[in-house]
Amino acid sequence: MTDFGSGEDYDGYGLGTFDQTIIADDFGVEAIGNGGFDPGGYSTFLSVLPSKGIVITVMTIQGGYPPDLVLPVAEKLASSLEG
């Protein structure tokens, strides 16, 4: 599920999961997950931070692209959990 390829074969997608490390750079660690949205009504984001043992999920009743709408909320949650 987390084999995202390497070198020229790297596409950031495993089996139902994405390498979110690049888009979630404020997490500061490896991040794996997925999200979804419907322009008319919802946006979701789930991210696992394996090295920290943390799972973050954000769900809204607003339509919008997850990295733009819910990623900032997830990043704030991640930073508040830093010990």
Structure explained in plain terms:
The protein is of the alpha+beta class. It has helices at 66-69, 71-80, and strands spanning 18-19, 32-38, 42-49, 54-60. The chain has one domain. The chain contains 2 helices and 4 strands. It has a 4-stranded antiparallel β-sheet. The longest helix has 10 residues, at 71-80. It is globular, with a radius of gyration of 13 Å.
Primary descriptors:
about 80 residues; alpha+beta; 4-stranded antiparallel beta sheet; about 15% helix; globular
Which regions contain 5 or more consecutive residues with pLDDT less than 50? none
Query: What is the general shape?
Result: globular
Task: Work out the helix count.
Answer: 2
Strand runs, count? 4
The largest sheet, given as strand count, sense and whether it forms a barrel, is:
4 strands, antiparallel
Structural class: alpha+beta
Tell me the radius of gyration.
13 Å
Q: Can you list the strand order of the major beta sheet? A: 1-2-3-4
H-E string: EEEEHH
In short:
The protein has 83 residues and is α+β, with helices and mostly antiparallel strands.
Which helices and strands appear, and what pairs or packs with what?
Layout: E1 18-19, E2 32-38, E3 42-49, E4 54-60, H1 66-69, H2 71-80
Antiparallel strand pairs: 1-2, 2-3, 3-4
